[in-house]
């Protein structure tokens, strides 16, 4: 099956067995790449906490069940006299450490990353992810654990902008596979980590078992994906463009043919964008990046600033269990909506943003005035929050891919990924004083 640069989604011909196999291989490869890319990022928050807790207690065999039992104690056991059952330090503190490296990568990399071939980018992401698991699992001090979280953040940030750029070399439907895979990372990461530690493995051993995830990313990219000839696998885009231009300058016996004109046009499309062109592309992306950033700001303000405070003492679940189910239902909502691109496409991105802001305002007022009657209602709102966030993500990149000029598309996909990270970072900054205010009441 002939592959063009980001052609419209094409359902493989039932009679074309080779084309159908290629289509499924590429879709599955992008699903696995999305899963593996976000896996370490998702796991590191809880895993680093468990390792640090173990170091503080001096118990080298501590498991996640030990830290869970601590979280289930009443707030006054940690010296907190607040009317809210909350920890002295907000979970937004850890979120900042986990998101800032990603944000830095996404801000800087799009301007220089075209010099690095895709094969080298993937190898770098795999090494960084594996290093993060090893550093956190074998850490003997706090700074080593934090460094492991930073490595995971760098790997996830570089991987996201690289794989989003990579989609432009395939039919647009691989975006659905990528989005679904990233949504599945949250659910799979939480469930696998909980299952292994619940089975009796220590957090250290559990993280070492998860070294299989970077290996799966390696196999998915180099073994499962079927790359088109236009993909700069081991040569930078600039070098590939220069070689293409050199071929275009070969003398012709006859007048320039249509085939030669098409080759020259393809070569021009491969040429790197100038700095002026990149800033023009960024300006055009604001209509996508701003609503995406607002969605994620409201979303993570809820997750890191309000979820811990939405505690119902008379509910049959403990505080730790309520919080765990909030996070789980959020991830399930994200998975469902990030997998929905094949069924529904939503162009009204600002509508998704303001609906998410309304969620944040509602839950903020609920924390302040305690008017929600039960955790069941919060479960529904949190699941709905995940649906909005996942839908905003996949639809943003789908319409960027569809509406961008072919020559600008690769840079646009990489640059727009900064929107969600910027929103998350701002949410963490806003969540810190919010958490401190309510816990000091």
Topology, pairings included?
Blueprint: H1 17-57, H2 64-71, H3 92-108, H4 118-138, H5 142-166, H6 174-198, H7 203-209, H8 212-224, H9 237-248, H10 258-270, H11 275-306, H12 319-338, H13 349-369, H14 375-403, H15 406-416, H16 418-439
Helix pairs in contact: 1-4, 1-5, 1-6, 1-8, 3-5, 3-16, 4-5, 4-7, 4-8, 5-15, 6-12, 6-14, 9-10, 11-13, 11-14, 11-15, 11-16, 12-14, 13-14
Overall outline: globular
Low-confidence stretches are: 59-79, 247-254
SSE series: HHHHHHHHHHHHHHHH
| Total count of strands | 0
Largest sheet: none
How helix-rich are the residues, as a percent range? over 70%
- Rg: 23 Å
What features would you describe in this structure?
The chain is mostly helical and 441 residues long. It is built from 16 helices and no strands. It has helices spanning 17-57, 64-71, 92-108, 118-138, 142-166, 174-198, 203-209, 212-224, 237-248, 258-270, 275-306, 319-338, 349-369, 375-403, 406-416, 418-439. α1 (17-57) runs antiparallel to α8 (212-224) and α4 packs antiparallel against α7 (203-209). The longest helix is centred in the N-terminal third of the chain and has 41 residues, at 17-57.
């Amino acid at each position: 099956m002939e592959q063009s640069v980001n052609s419209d989604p094409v359902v493989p011909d039932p009679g074309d067995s080779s084309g159908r196999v290629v289509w499924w291989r590429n879709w599955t490869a992008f699903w696995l790449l999305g899963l593996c890319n976000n896996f370490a990022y998702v796991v590191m928050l809880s895993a680093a906490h468990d390792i640090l807790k173990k170091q503080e207690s001096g118990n080298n065999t501590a498991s996640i069940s030990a830290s869970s039992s601590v979280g289930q104690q009443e707030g006054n056991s940690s010296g907190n006299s607040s009317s809210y059952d909350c920890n002295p330090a907000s979970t937004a503190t850890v979120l900042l450490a986990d998101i800032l490296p990603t944000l830095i990568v996404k801000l800087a990399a799009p301007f220089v990353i075209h010099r690095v071939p895709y094969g080298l980018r993937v190898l770098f992401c795999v090494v960084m992810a594996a290093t993060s698991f090893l550093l956190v699992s074998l850490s003997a001090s706090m700074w080593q654990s934090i460094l492991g979280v930073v490595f995971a953040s760098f790997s996830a940030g570089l991987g996201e902008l690289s794989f989003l750029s990579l989609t432009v070399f395939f039919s647009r439907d691989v975006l659905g596979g990528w989005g679904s895979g990233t949504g599945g990372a949250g659910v799979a990461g939480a469930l696998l980590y909980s299952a292994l530690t619940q089975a009796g493995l220590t957090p250290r051993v559990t993280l070492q078992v998860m070294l299989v995830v970077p290996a799966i990313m390696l196999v998915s990219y180099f073994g499962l994906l079927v790359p088109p000839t236009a993909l700069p696998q081991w040569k930078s885009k600039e070098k590939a463009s220069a070689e293409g231009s050199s071929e275009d300058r070969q003398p012709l016996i006859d007048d320039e043919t249509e085939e030669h004109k098409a080759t020259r046009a393809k070569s021009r499309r491969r040429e790197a964008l100038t700095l002026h062109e990149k800033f023009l592309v960024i300006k055009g992306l604001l209509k996508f990046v701003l609503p995406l950033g607002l969605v994620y700001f409201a979303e993570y303000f809820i997750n890191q600033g309000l979820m811990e405070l939405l505690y119902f003492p008379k509910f049959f679940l403990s505080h730790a269990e309520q919080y765990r189910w909030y996070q789980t239902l959020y991830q399930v909502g994200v998975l469902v909506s990030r997998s929905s691109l094949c069924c529904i496409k939503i162009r009204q991105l600002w509508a998704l943003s303001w609906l998410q802001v309304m969620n944040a305002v509602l839950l903020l007022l609920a924390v302040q005035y305690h008017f929600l009657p039960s955790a069941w209602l919060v479960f529904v709102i949190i699941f709905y929050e995940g649906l909005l966030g996942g839908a905003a993500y996949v639809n943003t990149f789908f319409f960027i891919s569809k509406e961008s000029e072919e020559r600008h598309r690769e840079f646009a996909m990489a640059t727009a990924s900064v929107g969600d990270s910027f929103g998350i970072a701002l949410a963490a900054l806003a969540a810190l004083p919010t958490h401190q205010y309510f816990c000091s009441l």
